[in-house]
């Protein structure tokens, strides 16, 4: 299930993986939110190289998924689950890091509530389609 999450009015593309019971988030979107970079793809590319050179395994474990790009086409983008994302956030100097971590925790809490009460998930889906 693909979804757009908003953090401070900025979209973060996400996908819920039913088999793994995990959210995956577009790393480029998170980089853009945290850094306010005009070119988050380049920022991520440079950060990824630096982390790989340091031997950071988080980058190695990030996967690519097709997600809807701003141009309306499905394109491959690097994604990370919540745990991987929290590790990556530590490598990005940003005053928004702590509020973003709290936002991730809220998304996790909402998903747990939806699992316990499927009517909440139906209500969210209905709201997002309107």
From TrEMBL:
Designated name of the protein: BRO family protein
Pfam families: Bro-N
Domain Bro-N: 1-119
Family matches, as SMART domains: Bro-N
InterPro entries assigned: BRO_N_domain
């Amino acid at each position: 299930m693909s979804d757009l999450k908003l953090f401070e009015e900025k979209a973060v593309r996400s996908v819920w993986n039913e088999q793994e019971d995990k959210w995956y988030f577009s790393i480029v979107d998170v980089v853009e939110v945290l850094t306010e970079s005009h070119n988050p793809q380049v920022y991520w590319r440079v950060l990824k190289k630096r982390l790989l050179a340091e031997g950071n395994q988080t980058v190695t474990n990030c996967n690519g998924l097709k997600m809807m790009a701003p141009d309306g086409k499905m394109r491959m983008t690097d994604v990370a689950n919540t745990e991987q994302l929290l590790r990556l956030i530590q490598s990005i100097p940003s005053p928004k890091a702590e509020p973003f971590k709290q936002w991730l925790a809220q998304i996790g809490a909402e998903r747990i509530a939806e699992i316990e009460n499927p009517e909440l998930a139906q209500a969210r889906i209905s709201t997002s389609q309107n």
